[in-house]
Design brief:
Length: 103
């Protein structure tokens, strides 16, 4: 998405990092850049507002469910793999390997 207008921060960069902005997971200098972009770009501001509303709705509807401990451990394990720069396997690494079947 792009409004077709030139901006200091490109629309694609803003939209690629929208959830980092929504979750306040970016440095203040970048947050300021994005805020300035939203002030001058109505399509991105509209997308921001929509994603913010969806996030609030999900939190309201699903925010009270407890996450099973094993699921949390699996997710945190994958996050640690990604953070350490290791490749993340396509299959579930937390399951025991299947026993070979006899012929």
């Amino acid at each position: 998405m792009s409004c077709g207008e030139p901006h200091e921060t490109d629309c694609s960069e803003v939209l690629d990092h929208l959830y980092e902005f929504l979750d306040s997971e970016m440095p203040d200098v970048d947050r300021d850049k994005f805020q300035h972009h939203f002030e001058e770009c109505s399509p991105c501001l509209e997308k921001y507002g929509l994603e913010q509303a969806v996030k609030k709705l999900v939190k309201r509807c699903c925010g009270h469910d407890d996450v099973p401990a094993d699921l949390r451990a699996k997710v945190m394990g994958r996050i640690e793999l990604i953070r350490s720069g290791q490749t993340v396997p396509e299959h579930d690494v937390t399951k025991a390997p299947a026993a070979p079947q006899e012929s």
